Amino acid sequence: MKSPLEIVLDYHQRTKHHFQHYAAGPDGLDWKNQPDPFRTFAGSTKLELPLLGAGTQPLYTELYHPGAIPVQALTLPNIAALLELSFGLSAWKQYDSTGWALRCNPSSGNLHPTEAYLVVQGCGGIPDGVHHYVSRDHVLEQRCDFAQAGHEKTRIMPPDSFLIGLSSAHWREAWKYGERAFRYCQHDVGHAIAALSYAAAMLGWQVHFLDAWGDADIGAILGVEREVDFEAAEREHPDIMMQVTTTRTDAVIAGFDASALVTATQGGHWQGQANVLSPQPPHPWPVIDEVADACYKPHTRQTNWPAPNLPAPISSACQLSAVEIIKQRRSAQEFDGSTSISAKAFYRMLDMTLPRASMAPWDVVVWEPRIHLVLFVHRVDGLAPGLYLFMRNEHVEAKLRSELSAEFEWLPIPECPAHFSLFRLLRADAQNVSRALSCHQDIAADGVFSLGMLAEYKNNLTSSPWVYRQLFWEAGMLGQVLYLEAEAANVCGTGIGCYFDDEVHDLLGIKTQTCQSMYHFTVGRAITDTRLQTLTAYGHLRRS
Fold it and tell me: Would you tell me how many other CB atoms lie within 10 Å of the CB of residue 188?
């Protein structure tokens, strides 16, 4: 029998795309069985949430200045704003008779496998308990009532805080992407973590990753492991629990563990029946269930990695509000192939991928950076086209030098900020190779730059196979940072989940599994598709 580590390593190997063949997936898209993008729980009590008003909102750049945004009270309208700006709809689009929603949190293929849950106590207007958020209607569905367990007068959660839990419906991604879907679900968890952190920062709040909590506890609290509530419905896998606090601190509130909440939910009153997402049973992809089980996280000790003391971020000329940037974010479909950006704008984007204490979104993360950026620079003013490496943790330079090809020049960039670990590996026209490595997609060559995310891989998984998920979460967070920073620089970004894994490693000279590719991304000037009409620009449109 394979160990969990062997299962994870084998899964990653078998789900790689190659020039000669792609990872196993459906032969075509079964449109009649396309999963519903919105989970609901019939029979649960609904709470309609207020929408964001048109009042003055903080600038996007203020999100990166701790203390610049006043702390907002823990109220129903503010929690509603948090949910709207992290998991809510940003627009409806329509082409001919087909309409679809766009959300503030990015998703692979716009399939949105990530579900969000609120766990709250002592917030006026929201009943104590567990609630599921339905982005389509901007409502909360109460799943569990703590009062039924006799906890209406017992404080089981720290004051001035609440929890947000995330889970994944793997079938939503597997319908289109087959075996590789588990990877994309984890990307989307990372997108959602960063989206939540940005939304919290807009309220002067902070998000903390409850790293010690195990999947069993998270599943019990969120109710996703209650078979009676799902029956024929497609299941959700517990992913992460986060604590949102109105008081900013560098650590999780002491003394808060899962046991009291598990007891409260076990004795609480549950309601609601999960909807069936597809009319026919999902196509089985056993390897997804296998790797999900192998990545199941037990209860562990809480970790708190202290972020380095870095200079203030490079300034941005963006004058848009945080709401505007968050809600206008789109995945570009095509780039013009001619636009360039300034070196300062390029360096700003890289700078925002570095963790800083008390600064969104990296103040969520409790581990040191494990992912670094392999950059294909096409059109950055003052920077020669070519292949570059940006290390998000300077302590890994010696290790990466030993892993990568000995033919690389490792040329420091004297014009870049002093705290950067940025090197040019090779001067060359990188357009054709970036296109080829990203599954022959023109968008990787037509932008101002594209990149691959290279993870410190096998050594991090040896004792903790569930870290495999966290590597993708970190990659997804990087994607959301780059999405928003691209918008702030008046260009656009696009995540690329399709790339040739080992061919990227061959380019870099990597011959072992020590480092592995996790995600590709590209930035450029989008060509507007006039066939798509945005039905709501900013704000939320409820559909009955």
Answer: 29
